[in-house]
Amino acid sequence: MHTSLLLLVQEYDISLRLPEIDFSRVQVEWVRLRSNIPEVWKLNNDGREFQVGEAMKERDLTARYPVVIIPGIISTSLESWSTSPEYRPFFREKVWGGFNMLSQVVFNRERWMAAMMLDSDTGLDAPGAKVRAAEGINAASNFMTGYWIWAKIIENLAVVGYDTNNLYLAAYDWRLSMWNLEERDGYFSKLKLMIEGLKKRQEKKVVITAHSMGATAKAMSAFLSGEMRDTVEMNPVGAYVLERFFSRSERQQLFRSWAGSASLWVKGGDTIWGNETWAPDDEPEASHSHGALISFRRDLVVATDAGAEQTKNMTAERVGNWILERTPSSFQKMLSTNYSFGIERDGEVLARNDFDNRKWSNPLEIRLPNAPSMKFICVYGHGKETERSYWYAHAQQVPNESLVDTELPKAEEAGTPLDSSRLRSSWIDAEYTNENLTPKVRNGVKIGEGDGTVGLLSMGAMCVEGWKRPRWNPAGINVTTVELPHRPVSNMPRGGANTSDHIDILGSTTMNEIILKVATGVGHEIQEAFVSRIREYAQQINWD
């Protein structure tokens, strides 16, 4: 959302004055903007449309296997189906995705929040609200006009003969837990029938191409304080507007109500992510370890009743418990009944986990299917700075949510430590920047490796090591890993043909080539390629 707003501001020269903003004028400008956007916004076309498909077509390659696309979390557009009087003005309009969503966030925030939040007890629609996933190819082709997601892949597939008869986009309501997604919408049953129907009708295997859903440190900070690197590194205009229209506490409230977002919780605990002094992806001679997922600076330590006891830095496992101690019982219940975040090494237990829905979204606690002829291809970007761990501050006094430049409480004013009756506020220590450390710290974020959103360990560790082991891959499914270096073109808003940004990689030339090669039957041409040290990192994990 932040990226889209900045693109709009830059493209159409929208001026926002600080510290006072004339919001009536902004609304007039917004209406003008929406009515004057070209039918095909120029950011949608950068010279690569259909090129990969044309190159494949020149090789006489055509559609061979049916293709099913499964979008990443938050990629699917959501529509309002509520007929309650307060929601009727936007019946069947998008409440997630498109310009209408941005209009609702800016000018009708409370109603939009009410529609998007899920009931804290049931994990389903809140009373009076009814939101469902959009359907069809367009459900995740573009987030809004010109801001493509799957559009370029769909364009290139179309050149070699794909259409709605052999190409299916499996949109879903990503807010829901996996269990509720099946219970309410029958999503997985319908997906199963679609895959089996395509295979039976065309007598060929089906290619499933999925994106994102990796475990991320970003998710942990969002659950804890409603923040992430994107929010603490905003320019003053973007930060002011975000807090004015969609505050930190509101973001936190929404995120915690979306049970589906908990699938992004880091998995494997300290075994995968490291301890207080070491992590498998630490750089040589590191000044501090990524294994301390949440760290506290000494000068911001909160004094306890017993004296100046320092708050301990926290590993992945301790962070999880710390978040749960600061969340409502309804959130804790949702998490325990829908998810599991450990690592399982016992073969008999792994077999039983086939029947435990809590385990299904954790590749460390579930086996790959018994399908020896299946092939996995892991493709992801590398070379873009990615948040891996954080420096946090906390205090009993809650900072003013409405102002970006609010002075945070000093250590001696911060109050007493957490107990059962008194909760402290926590936030990323955005004032802390030190580019000379390893890893470097920028605005309270420890920078690691990845694609700008998902860390390298999450993307590659199972591909290069975990799934090479029979306990998690009993059928010996062949797994090929391809890392794409991040080489963006500086003057192109989305990075150009060689970007490997988490979202923009879906428009990169190499990613499109890989998908089309598999779909047209020449997937054997794809060779493993590495640009990172993921194999070294993965070997340092205690898999046994």
Automatic annotation (TrEMBL):
Magnesium is among the record's keywords: no
- Show the SUPFAM superfamilies listed in the entry: alpha/beta-Hydrolases (SSF53474)
- List this protein's GO terms for biological process: lipid metabolic process
GO function terms (MF aspect):
O-acyltransferase activity
Lineage, top-rank taxon, reads Eukaryota
Presence of the UniProt keyword Lyase in the record: no
Query: What keywords are assigned to this protein?
Result: Acyltransferase, Transferase
The record's section on InterPro entries has: AB_hydrolase_fold, LACT/PDAT_acylTrfase
Name it. Lecithin:cholesterol acyltransferase-domain-containing protein
Taxonomic lineage: Eukaryota, Fungi, Dikarya, Basidiomycota, Agaricomycotina
